Amino acid sequence: MGVWGWHRGSGWTQYALAIGVPVAAAFLWGAFAVPNDPSRGGAGLFPVPGMVRVALELALFGFAVWALFEVGAAVLGWALGVAVAVHYVVSLDRLVWLIGK
């Protein structure tokens, strides 16, 4: 995400986007949590339903994959996309739990 921000900006905006986009993503990741989520400790600033959390995760991972393609790192984009898919297959029990919440 930071590399994408660096490529999208110019001058001082390169620095702002290269730092700001990953920081914003990290904030969203940590702030929105499903209460009692055993994989995350259930602590977050904003309790959300499981489907909202799944949508947030898919949006952030999707953006990261897209950003890699956008900057010309297609091999890394494919690698991250496959890693995300494998992660969700391996943790299918968590995904089912989230969808049911």
* Amount of helix: over 70%
Spans of at least 5 consecutive residues whose pLDDT stays below 50 are: none
Regarding quaternary structure, what we see is single chain
Mean pLDDT: 92
Please give the alpha-carbon distance between the first and last residues: 29 Å
User: What is the topology, as strand order, of the major beta sheet?
Assistant: 1-2
Q: Let me know the largest β-sheet.
A: 2 strands, parallel
Shape descriptor reads flat
Strand content: under 5%
> How many strands appear in the DSSP assignment?
2
Number of domains: 1
Secondary-structure-derived class? mainly alpha
The total count of helices amounts to 5
Reading the helices and strands in chain order gives HHEEHHH
Q: From the alpha-carbon coordinates, what is the Rg to the nearest angstrom?
A: 15 Å
Can you put this structure into words, describing what you see?
The protein has 101 residues and is mainly alpha-helical. The longest helix is centred in the middle third of the chain and has 21 residues. It has a two-stranded parallel ribbon with strand order 1-2. Helix content is 73%, strand content 4%. The protein is flat, with a radius of gyration of 15 Å. The chain has one domain.
